[in-house]
Amino acid sequence: MQQSISILGSGWLGFPVAKKLLAEFSSVKISTRSADKLSLLAAAGLHPFQIDIENLPDNIQDFLHSDILIINITSKNIAAFTNLIAEIEISRVKQVLFISSTSVYPEQESPCKESDNLQQSSHPLLIIESLLQNNSHFQTTILRCAGLIGGKRHPGRFFAANKQAAKVIAFPKAPVNLIHLDDCLAIIALIIKKECWGETLNGCADTHPSKEAFYTYNALALGLDRPQLSPQSKAVYKVICNEKLKRLLDYQFIHSDLMRIDPCKNYD
Questions:
Q1: Residue 86: which of 56, 66, 62 has the closest Cα?
Q2: Which three-class secondary structure state does DSSP give residue 169?
């Protein structure tokens, strides 16, 4: 593939994505806000840029001189994204993949689907999604990822005791909505390969065990104490539906069953 790609954000997901795409693209540009990280990214064979979207640098067009842009940052600054989008408009970028979050969905009795009407929500990610998808200068696909696990994000440590006090699992009977790093990487690569642009997709594993069952299993597997449980409960929870993604991409999740992920082998 003789294309170039730019990846805004080089954290837990951005850096592994960049390394995976090195074999597919003639040039892989990647951003970081930290000058100290530039050498690490360069050593991996990437073309690093120091970029903070709240204070766009003079070389932002050099970074955006690519066919595809992946946006994978935690910022929800709508004004900053508005400025970034103005730069994308005059750049070479023709396709954008925005990594969003299933946090945009409210808790409800029915499974959360991409077709749900969320127009009444003021969630900043929804506003940013709309700014990107409604722009006619480029095509945008939104990937709404569930809670992220894998790599160094081991769920067994999420509720481990710290020096002050043990973290308590709130609403322990609630179902979890999670996705493993392996699946994130595979899905992003498939979206690009299949040119699945102009879509909104939910990235979430097939199964939804309770928080109590999932986090207890993973903590005990690491030899940690059993997490403490809150007595809280509520009538309605959120369950993310992934059927559209599986259909459009003809995708089967690598880690479809969260309780079958090996707590020792499938994490760094």
A1: 56
A2: strand
The C-alpha atoms of residue 69 and residue 192 are separated, in whole angstroms, by 10
DSSP state of 210: B
**pLDDT tens, N- to C-terminus, the chain (268 residues):** 558 999 999 999 999 999 999 999 989 999 999 999 999 999 999 999 999 999 999 999 999 999 999 999 999 999 999 999 999 999 999 999 999 999 999 999 999 999 999 988 899 999 999 999 999 999 999 999 999 999 999 999 998 766 455 689 999 999 999 999 999 999 999 999 999 999 999 999 999 999 999 999 999 999 999 999 999 888 899 999 999 999 999 999 999 999 999 999 999 8
pTM, entire model: 0.96
Angle at 255 between CA 250 and CA 257, to 5 degrees: 105
Answer yes or no: are the C-beta atoms of 4 and 65 closer than 8 Å. Answer: yes
Please give the sequence-ordered ranges of beta strands (E in DSSP) within the chain, or none if there are none: 4-8, 27-32, 47-50, 68-71, 95-101, 139-145, 147-149, 168-169, 178-180, 200-203, 228-229
Residue with tokens 């006090």: 165
The CA distance from 112 to 100, in Å, is 15
Cβ–Cβ under 8 Å, residues 253 and 187: no
Structural contact between residues 105 and 118, judged by C-beta atoms closer than 8 angstroms: yes
Structure tokens at 247: 């259909």
